[in-house]
Amino acid sequence: MPTYQAPTRDYGFLLHEVLDLTRYANLPGFAEATPDLVDQIIAQAAKFAEEVLQPLNAVGDTQGCTLKDGVVTVPDGFADAYRQLVDGGWPALVCDPRYGGQGLPNVVGVVFNEMVSSANMAFGMYPGLSHGAYSALIHHGSDDQKDTYLPRLVSGEWTGTMNLTEPHCGTDLGLLRTKAVPAGDGSYRISGQKIWISAGEHEMAENIIHLVLARIEGAPEGVGGISLFLVPKYLVGADGALGARNAVRCGGLEEKMGIHGNATCVMNYDEATAFLVGEENKGLKAMFTMMNEARLGVGLQGIALSEVAYQNARAFAKDRLQGRALTGPKNPDGPADPIIVHPDVRRMLMNVKAFNEGARALLLWTALWGDLADRAEDEETRRKADDLMGLMTPVLKAYCTDMGFAGAVEAQQVYGGSGYVKEWGAEQFVRDVRIAMIYEGTNGIQALDLVGRKLASHGGRAVFSFFAEIDAFIEANGDDDSLKEFVAPLGVARKHLEKATMWFMENALEKPDNAGAGAADYLHLFALTAIALMWAQMVRTAQARLANGAAGDPFYEAKVVTGRYFVTRILPRTAAHLAAVKAGADDVMALAADAF
Amino acid sequence: MPTYQAPTRDYGFLLHEVLDLTRYANLPGFAEATPDLVDQIIAQAAKFAEEVLQPLNAVGDTQGCTLKDGVVTVPDGFADAYRQLVDGGWPALVCDPRYGGQGLPNVVGVVFNEMVSSANMAFGMYPGLSHGAYSALIHHGSDDQKDTYLPRLVSGEWTGTMNLTEPHCGTDLGLLRTKAVPAGDGSYRISGQKIWISAGEHEMAENIIHLVLARIEGAPEGVGGISLFLVPKYLVGADGALGARNAVRCGGLEEKMGIHGNATCVMNYDEATAFLVGEENKGLKAMFTMMNEARLGVGLQGIALSEVAYQNARAFAKDRLQGRALTGPKNPDGPADPIIVHPDVRRMLMNVKAFNEGARALLLWTALWGDLADRAEDEETRRKADDLMGLMTPVLKAYCTDMGFAGAVEAQQVYGGSGYVKEWGAEQFVRDVRIAMIYEGTNGIQALDLVGRKLASHGGRAVFSFFAEIDAFIEANGDDDSLKEFVAPLGVARKHLEKATMWFMENALEKPDNAGAGAADYLHLFALTAIALMWAQMVRTAQARLANGAAGDPFYEAKVVTGRYFVTRILPRTAAHLAAVKAGADDVMALAADAF
């Protein structure tokens, strides 16, 4: 059976040593986030993830959820674990203190979420969706709505959902048909069917707050006629007490490839009482607030599953005796050597390790920009932070799930045949993480968001900020001999990224298919470059520690080796991505649909 | 529900136009394999695969196999389909006429096997394993054994298995413990446990012929003490009649990620009556005969599943309406355009299509060399053919399953959320094909076979033959303007492959870890180069047809476009693989095991 041990040392390294949160102690929330408190939170969260959530991961996969008479039963142990989550105050970690939150920076919440997802991705989606609902409401809800719903979303007593997809529309929300009719009392009655609603129905919380996209009767067609509504499972009285059961029911559960522990529901709305959130016909914008946050959370799932898959593959590789090292026996008294002596097994482990640690750094770096976008004192910093956060969101979502899936697959490969057998658990990680490439906007949609929107907006301001970050690093460290082997390849990757960016500017404005055809490769090129920056930063920090008091510490030494592995073995892929971008759309678009 | 339509036109194109089997009409079996007969076989096989096997594919996945009182029940419909397979004479297709076979070239059998695997991979493994047993026996069995067992393996009345793995040993067969004791009458009694035995037990055939690796009492330790045995489920009398039930029983079925329709058995041998095949202590060599053939068959599964996954994704992409083309509506009367208008969707389809067709060409090209190795008249050709076949076997096994899995995943991605839901079937292809990267020697083992054995043997004779094939093509076609865009990148890839080969020669002899660390990348570089040669050949043939009587034929036009896509978008990856090879083993081996 798989196990999980939270990578607490890596979290500390990133938060305290590389990102150094104490630099921002002047900002709200950061003041409280002292290294001591953060370490304490990490330790407690690790215990909860390792001891409570992880043992339920295989149970959730095997049992799945069941629906009977409209009631969804979650796997054994999930309800109790959820209670412990609430009792521990975890849902409140990064929420607004005005509504009972602890107000810590989101970068700390990201660390918590990674641990939860590693331990039990399907479970983590219940509080994950709640937090999305919280975000949509705190940004777009009325004061009354906030007062009514936020405290119990923050405490976790209630959970939340996002209702976007309908059978005939997923990506193209302009087609949606769910209808909202004014009831005359300021509320609406919503009717329609939503599908693939994660955490859509269960009994773990007293109430479920559904956020639902619908079209108000008479609203314009397309995305300009979509509004966001709040539909509670149980209506809430003025005193906060739960009232009548609302006309929203789970009509079915999807049978899926994985994340069986999460209830993926068909939700039927039959004149359900609903409350408008934000302005009429501005629902898509409000939903994007929720979705952008969710996208970072999905990228995180990619890293989280790759991490736990890696840990278990590593344990297998140290334990399984098979064959002898090419350089002679390493376990001469045993019948064979542990397979970790074989270069190809190590190659797989190093691939996954280099991704996990590099991507985690990028995730936390980006989450920190997100915090600065909200909390920095000067507008200039907030603007730049918001730019970088927006730019990196699709990059992280798509790259970390593409590669997180690849990491889980590569970890499974380390096991040989055992990786294919259910009892070892490696295959569950693969099945679970696969959804992350799809939901919250497929990775293709992320690439289009990056190329079609984020690159272009404000004349490329965000991407210039990103290049400036790289240039500043190169400028500051280019003369450091011990960093040359990292700075030089970073410079090459940066050049490839710049060429690809220029190529779009020159070739995609008049011919947008050139952007669409190269978007996915561009996104990977972008991510590789960003992660090269992260590795250079991490190695710089590690080398400084090794030179100052931590000589011989295997943690820092491993950082340097892993960073080197990344730049020599993985980063050279940027050239192929650039070639693919520059190949343009012609061959992609040449075939008639019938010729496929 | 997924469907399958055999790519019969592509088979005809490859067998008749690109490879032109009629060139070998002087050789045994080829004389009979006229284009007419081959087309007839393909058409009948297609009908069988599409109408009989494919509809059982989801059934097999859902029901799986069950074990009760030692009896394995296969999914509904499998037994009837197996009867139809036998009645159709399909197992005999490429077998030796002396034992009732039809004696056709194996390259025709490969086409049949691809169709079977596309339609129902789990089902296809039953006859697939039988053919492996046939091969081992025909090469290593005694005349008596051949006479007794081969006719009914050829007819399909009996099936066969391969028994290698034990709980503590898979790749490292030297560790195996299953014991054989001479019974005094020339037979042996075998005791031990084998695991992961595909098609190990079922009632679809009257008898099952297990080929089992075991160690004769007193034999040397390690691989030099392993012998191959034949253990029939029912003993066979001198008259061919079935006798007593042998002491071999299925002790359990594995729960797996996929291929649920195939019974993956724990096989317990309890003093089972066994007959030595070939010489004592030479079992591993005999088993390799079976395994090498099986490896090509596994590579084929990668292509087969990628093909069927592609076909269904293509249908989805033409049917699903979502969004508008970047260049303006293509389906103005509908609510949205079919998603095949979107460049990123096309990119995914083109990726898979370019792999499927290129890899299929390489598979058939290699299978043809295999036929020539057996049947060519002059020894020089037989030797060269055997070299190329041996060289390409690990390349095909590993590359076609790595990329076949990637193709199934990419096809699943085309569906968006529907790809994750069981009822659409896309996720089954992903789960099923995943095993192909693992069994019959993990892909890492294939890479070591390529680099450690195939490259080095006879002073690199095989790889020089391969380079000579490329050079001959470039020489013959380099001046053809219409082929320049294919020949030039082929030359670049060839150069990368040569550099990587030289790097191993210079750096891996004294430091074998350098070979191990670069082997997987080298194998991919090798495959890309070989497939570039295939594309160049296919495009040449297609262009010739377009210029001579088939102007405007969309099939040939699509070949040219898809070949162009391959060389501009996929082939540039060779540079990154070369860089990874040249990065060497140092960073891969640097970490202590505890630092992972």
Describe the structure.
The first copy, chain A, has 596 residues and is an alpha+beta fold. Among the domains of chain A are: 8-65 and 74-143, Orthogonal Bundle (Butyryl-Coa Dehydrogenase, subunit A, domain 1); 159-281, Butyryl-CoA Dehydrogenase, subunit A, domain 2; 451-596. The first copy, chain A, is built from 17 helices and eleven strands. The first copy, chain A, has a five-stranded mixed β-barrel with strand order 4-5-11-7-6. The longest helix of chain A has 37 residues, at 283-319. The radius of gyration of chain A is 24 Å and the shape is globular. Chains A and B meet through helix 7, helix 8, helix 9, helix 10 and helix 11 of A and helix 7, helix 8, helix 9, helix 10 and helix 11 of B.
Short description:
With 596 residues, chain A is of the alpha+beta class.
